[in-house]
Amino acid sequence: MTIYETATSRREHDLADLRAALHGLAFPARQDDILAALVVGRSPSRVLWRAGCLSRERLYLSVDEVCADLASRPRADRR
Fold first, then answer.
1. What is d(CA 60, CA 48) in angstroms, rounded to the nearest whole number?
2. What is the largest CA-CA distance in the chain?
3. Half-sphere exposure of 13 (CA within 13 A, CB side)
4. How many CB atoms within 10 Å of residue 18?
5. How many other C-beta atoms can be found within 10 angstroms of the C-beta atom of residue 54?
6. pLDDT tens, residue order, the chain (79 aa)
7. Whole-angstrom Cα distance, residue 58 to residue 73?
8. What span, in angstroms and rounded, lies between the C-alpha atoms of 45 and 65?
9. DSSP for residue 29
């Protein structure tokens, strides 16, 4: 397994946790709404960190849109 495969699987795991945590969130939602839901749901800091990369101005229409935005960020796994 390479470092890139490890980073990809970590990202996929984080996105799965994000989907579960945002299950009851009403959309459309902004980054602040998403972060607040993650804090209230006591999500792991790694998931909060990842959601912190979301656009502050964008209005997300669904969890799928949130995850697609985060998955499209090539450097999201660099720490």
1. 16
2. 38
3. 9
4. 24
5. 19
6. 454 445 568 889 999 999 999 999 999 999 999 999 999 999 999 999 999 999 999 999 999 999 999 999 875 444 4
7. 15
8. 21
9. B
- Residue 48 corresponds to which amino acid? L
Torsion over CA: 70, 67, 29, 35 (sign): negative
2: its two tokens:
């390479």
**Could you tell me which of 78, 70, 72, 75 has the C-alpha nearest to residue 17?**
70
Beta partners for residue 29, in sequence order: 60
Residue 11 parent element (H or E): helix 3-21
The structure tokens listed for 3 are 């470092």
